[in-house]
Amino acid sequence: MGGQHRIAVIAGDGIGQEVVPEGLRALEMAAKRFDIDLAFTEFDWGCGHYERHGRMMPEDGIDRLASFDAIFLGAVGWPTVPDHVSLWGLLIPIRRRFEQYVNLRPVRLFEGVPCPLAGKKPGDIDFLIVRENVEGEYSEIGGRLYAGTEREMAVQESIFTRFGVDRILRYAFELARSRPKRHLTSATKSNGIIHTMPFWDERVKAMATAYPDVRLDQYHIDILTAHFVRCPERFDVVVGSNLFGDILSDLGPAVTGTIGIAPSANLNPERRWPSMFEPVHGSAPDIAGQGIANPIGQIWSGAMLLDHLGYPEAGAAIVAAIERILKSGRVLTRDMGGSASTEEQGKAIAAEIG
Ligand code: ATP
Ligand code: MG
Q1: Phi first, then psi: what are they for 77, rounded to 5°?
Q2: Are 301 and 263 contacting, i.e. CB atoms less than 8 angstroms apart?
């Protein structure tokens, strides 16, 4: 804490270009109010860079990021570039090289945002998803056999190491312990996926002995998704593998009204390397360039960045500003039933912080 904090900014593609300026506006306002020294350096990496140079970022891109205190990312991906190229050319290398093994995604229903679930009040939905972010189902191991023949097949391996599973579970148990409800839910599918998932379940049971004060539930992913929709008030901290965590963290925001408000933190909890903060949503080509994207996911990600740098009051001030703007029903973007532009909503939130 204290001193100057260097933040690498990658706005990326599509609506990333529109929401990142609003995220920066909020960060600058909070920095001013709480006297925090933030220095931003922008990088024009992403699909545009790919089209110009054949790479999502320069060859030494990762090395250049290594000395920053945090990375503030918009979105990467564009229809003209294959998904695996944009993902594996920027996002995944950053997560892996910087050991950002925790992907933390808060899910919260705010007053003023229409909830698609009947009868849910703000306060009913307020939980955290902890996604394992560097191993599991998202591996490069596998391939095709007998390509182009009748016997053609694809094989994909998942990697679950004891080290990797234990460190994400420890993070999740500690997080659950720090919250009033002290409740952890773990997602697997051990009846269908019979090697990796029972291993995860076993590690959960083993670790639970060190956390007798944390109430534990273990569900299969299929029934868990049903519970997310039927009784989201049941959850406090939810931990899952890379794939299951990814799915749950799209579903979570969907039940709170819009994916546009959902933030995420890719954390290296040991702070050996920079952590990265980005909204849950992608580049949204269908609405890009129109100035109508909801900037709250980006702004809230900025609040998580400040938390991580050691300024929880500044982070909380941003979240409180979001809360007040949503509650007031003024300046809502289209996805929340209003007609405000990205910039109008961003400016209203920034003004509320200052
Ligand atoms: P990715 O593959 O990167 O996850 P995606 O193709 O799954 O991206 P998104 O880009 O997240 O999808 O968009 C999903 C839908 O949500 C789109 O219809 C998009 O318009 C909408 N959406 C996403 N983000 C926002 C936002 N900030 N404000 C309003 N609508 C949004
Ligand atoms: Mg998606």
Answers
A1: 130, 135
A2: yes
pLDDT of amino acid 1: 57
Residues 168 and 238 in one domain: yes
CA 282 – ligand 2 centroid, Å: 6
Average pLDDT over residues 282-304: 98
- Flag whether 117 is in a domain: no
Burial of 80 by CB count in 10 Å (0-12 exposed, 13-18 middle, 19+ buried)?
exposed
pTM above 0.80, yes or no: yes
pLDDT tens digits for range 296-307 = 999 999 999 999
Of 255, 282, 314, which residue constitutes the final position of a domain? 255
Does some domain include residue 320? yes
CA dist 324 to 110, 252, 352, Å? 9, 22, 8
**Residues 131, 118: Cα–Cα separation, whole Å:** 27
What pLDDT shows up at residue 140?
A: 87
Same domain, 165 and 228: yes
| Structural domain count of the chain | 2
Q: Which residues contact 226 (CB under 8 A, 6 or more apart)?
A: none
Please identify, by atom number, the ligand 1 atom nearest to the C-alpha of residue 293: 28
Task: Name which of 21-35, 157-171, 246-260, 340-354 the model is least confident about.
Answer: 246-260
* CA dihedral of 173, 179, 182, 187, whole degrees rounded to 10: -50
The pLDDT of residue 354 = 87
Choosing from 103, 105, 138, 259 the residue with most ligand 1 atoms within 8 A of its CB, the one to mutate for a pocket test is 259
Please tell me whether residues 77 and 185 are part of one structural domain.
Answer: no
- Specify whether 132 is located in the same domain as 17: no
Q: Give residue 146's domain range.
A: 126-255
What is the ipTM, given to two decimal places? 0.94
As a whole-number percent, the residues of the chain with pLDDT over 70 amount to: 100
Q: Is the dihedral of CA 77, 80, 84, 85 positive or negative?
A: negative
CATH classification of the domain holding 352: 3.40.718.10
List the residue whose alpha carbon is closest to atom 2 of ligand 1: 282
